[in-house]
Amino acid sequence: MARMSADINVIVQAVEKAARSLLRDFNEVDQLQVSMKAPADFVSAADRRAESILHKELSASRPGYGFIMEESGSVKGDADKPVFVIDPLDGTTNFLHGLPHWCISVAIVKDGEPIAAVVFAPVTNELFWAEKGRGAYVDKKGLRVSGKKKLEFSMLAYGELSPRNAWYKKLLNDIETFGKKGASLRRYGAAALDLSYVASGRFEAFWETGIKVWDVAAGILIVQEAKGKVVSLSSKNNDPLTSGSILATNGLVHEDVQSTIGNVDYK
Ligand code: IPD
Ligand code: CA
I want to staple 94 with a disulfide (CB 3.0 to 4.6 A). Which of 40, 99, 124, 174 is the partner? Predict the structure, then answer.
């Protein structure tokens, strides 16, 4: 049975507190449709409130740790201490539209590697977590990637599909190719949850270019500890944490998926 370490417990307590704040805001999203307040302002206020709770709680429990946060940037810690990498609200567009698929993502990164990870989806109340060398879990249940080997039985999730991105046409092409190979495809809109779903065996693969470290830090470890495979798709940087171009799979469809996509460079 899964036993959480002190580090994971500290993160879970902070995340649950931030989740209460986000859930209060999420319940107001309906009224937002008729309010004068700009939706972007509303969501960034919710984001900032959650991030400040996380920062306050985690810096009190783990003094000297550094922080990399989506909203407020980086806070340097002691040279010998790890860093918290935080996305206080991943899936902001879903949140704003009243869709339940959003989460909080927190990782501890040491020497460039995630060593502890929590991804919490407050509406569905699923808590994904992992520690390096100690497995991945959803609540108390162990996680394992799916055993599917064939693309035609697989569900593949992709990231942002926007004509603003240089790789837009390539992404459209790749989606078409996978569709022709018989795969099911999804765009769920919260990268940390997409990765947790690969770890849970719900998706066989997830890929995205233009992704940030706070979107993937926790999810990478959760996939790896569920015995999945995570790689960078960049031709210039092979670290999936920092390259901005990531592929995570169950390992079994990996070759097939990676050879179809090839390299996609973020920068
Ligand atoms: C975004 C989501 C989305 C992904 C984007 C991210 P945000 O994060 O994870 O699924 O496609 O690349 O920026 O803005 O909702 O925290
Ligand atoms: Ca995010």
Answer: 99
